[in-house]
Specification:
Shape: globular
Number of helices: 3
Strand content: 35-45%
CATH architecture: 3-Layer(aba) Sandwich
Radius of gyration: 16 Å
CATH topology: Hypothetical Protein Mth938, Chain: A
Mean pLDDT: 88
Number of domains: 1
Helix content: 10-25%
Structural class: alpha+beta
Distance between the termini: 33 Å
């Protein structure tokens, strides 16, 4: 499997007010989708931009017809269940804030060996990137913010 470095530039202000930047590099499999930014209703993967909510897998990203948590049904997870042989963790980016996940969602995913981990969308993006860099079997369903 080929790998590539993914670089991110972080800008920090120290306690004494000095500005500094740090470049963070992670080794990821060649062709893996890494979220480079999100916001204003758009997710970015390097040069590629996808408007609206998404279903994200390490090798592919798809539009997801969900605008809010209330739009999600068990059927919304059908593409994740279809890919169950490659997914063990589903990160659910719930928009700007975390809400309780209905038990029926967990029960729909569990027989397929998929655990759902709810969080706000920003945390889902960051967690997804880390898990992909660890070559974990992860997917994300994220509501655009």
């Amino acid at each position: 499997m080929k790998s590539r470095l993914s670089r991110e530039q972080l800008y920090l202000t120290t306690a004494n007010g000095a500005n500094m930047s740090i470049e963070v590099s992670t080794l990821v499999a060649e062709g893996s989708k890494i979220v480079t930014s999100y916001g204003d209703g758009v997710f970015r993967f390097g040069e590629e931009s996808i408007p609206g909510s998404i279903l994200l897998f390490p090798e592919a990203v798809y539009s997801w017809d969900v605008k809010a948590v209330d739009d999600i049904t068990v059927d919304s997870f059908a593409p994740i269940i279809e890919a169950a042989d490659t997914v063990e963790i589903l990160l659910l980016g719930m928009g700007n804030r975390l809400t309780r996940v209905p038990m029926e969602w967990r029960q729909a995913l569990k027989p397929h060996g998929i655990v759902i981990e709810p969080m706000d969308t920003g945390a889902a993006c960051r967690t997804y990137n880390v898990l992909v860099s660890e070559a974990r079997r992860v997917a994300a369903a994220m509501i655009a913010v």
